[in-house]
Design goal:
alpha/beta, six-stranded parallel β-sheet, four-stranded parallel β-sheet, 12 helices, 12 strands, globular
């Protein structure tokens, strides 16, 4: 009963309050002629996979001017697509939620389809029910949902990673404590919270590879995040994470958009899934459409078995030696 009440309250809130406000915002703010406004939901993976296909989307639809609508934290990523993004419209988290609520309501989503110059990218809204439905579609991936299901592209349409400007990253590596070819980044948090995986898994990894001479860092993005024992904190922007990860030996963490970002840089990435995770196919790192060093492991809740298997995967794939 409580679950049904929460669902009905959420639908009421979206339909009666947020939906109309979001639609009003779209109608009054996004009115420039010959302009397409693209609004990806503020998750790293969704943003990356949207940006990577903007060039193909513009060409297919003969779009003269494309404006990305995003929150402040994703502005730098949008700037790394200078040939595809003509302008960036930064909104607050509150306004972003208003806009996304339009696509979350079936009624307002129908109206949104009439606004051909506004495209909202929220993959979960294209599944009936919620994301638990993805287990019914084993062949569908997140990137496929965006490329084919939302953007309407074809297999021949290519993906473009963020553009790395010609710049000396030496100062950035020094400031963030990256030792080229001898650094491992751990990412034990997802969406600003712990993700239900025993933190001792990461502590064991940091201890073993720290003793082997690697510098081990913990990616932290919130004030309450704590570095894993025997590691140093890595606090950086998304753009900085993309630039430095190329020089790291590997990135190991909970499956999240941060792994998509670092994988695109060309480093080896190992994604860990909870034993009861139902979306390993949908979020499969191996679906990345470019040179791929993505690896995955689903935990079994048997610590000794899990840590032995993880060590074996890392040792067999670890990128060693200084990178230039």
């Amino acid at each position: 009963f409580l679950g049904a009440f929460k669902y009905l309250f959420k639908r009421f809130y979206l339909t009666v309050i947020f939906g109309p406000l979001g639609l009003f915002y779209l109608l009054t703010r996004f009115r420039e002629k010959n302009t397409c406004y693209v609004v990806p939901c503020p998750h790293i993976g969704d943003v990356l996979f949207t940006f990577g296909y903007l060039n193909a989307y513009k060409n297919k639809n003969n779009i003269k001017r494309l404006v990305v609508v995003c929150t402040k934290s994703f502005k730098e990523l949008a700037q790394m697509y200078p040939d595809d993004v003509d302008d960036i419209f930064v909104v607050s988290d509150y306004v972003m939620n208003l806009i996304l609520s339009v696509d979350a309501s079936y009624f307002y989503a129908l109206i949104l389809k009439k606004l051909s110059h506004v495209l909202i990218i929220v993959p979960p809204n294209h599944f009936r029910g919620d994301f638990s439905e993805i287990s019914r579609f084993p062949g569908v991936t997140l990137i496929g949902s965006i490329k084919y299901g939302i953007l309407g592209l074809e297999e021949k349409d290519s993906f473009a990673p963020p553009v790395k400007q010609d710049e000396d990253v030496g100062e950035l590596l020094d400031r963030l404590g990256i030792i080229s070819g001898k650094t491992i980044i751990l990412s034990p948090y997802i969406h600003g919270r712990e993700a239900g995986i025993d933190i001792s898994i990461f502590e064991a990894i940091s201890s073993r590879y720290g003793d082997l001479g690697y510098k081990v860092l913990t990616n932290v993005s919130a004030n309450w995040h704590k570095p894993i024992r025997k590691t140093k904190a890595l606090c950086c922007t998304l753009r900085e994470a993309y630039l430095i990860s190329e020089y790291c030996s590997c990135v190991i963490g909970i499956r999240s958009g941060f792994l998509d970002l670092t994988l695109l840089s060309g480093t080896m990435v190992l994604a860990l899934y909870q034993s009861n995770h139902t979306g390993t196919d949908y979020f499969d790192l191996r679906a990345m459409p470019i040179v791929n060093y993505g690896l995955q492991y689903r935990l079994t809740d048997d610590f000794d078995n899990d840590i032995t298997s993880i060590y074996e995967i890392i040792d067999n794939n670890l990128v060693q030696g200084e990178k230039s």
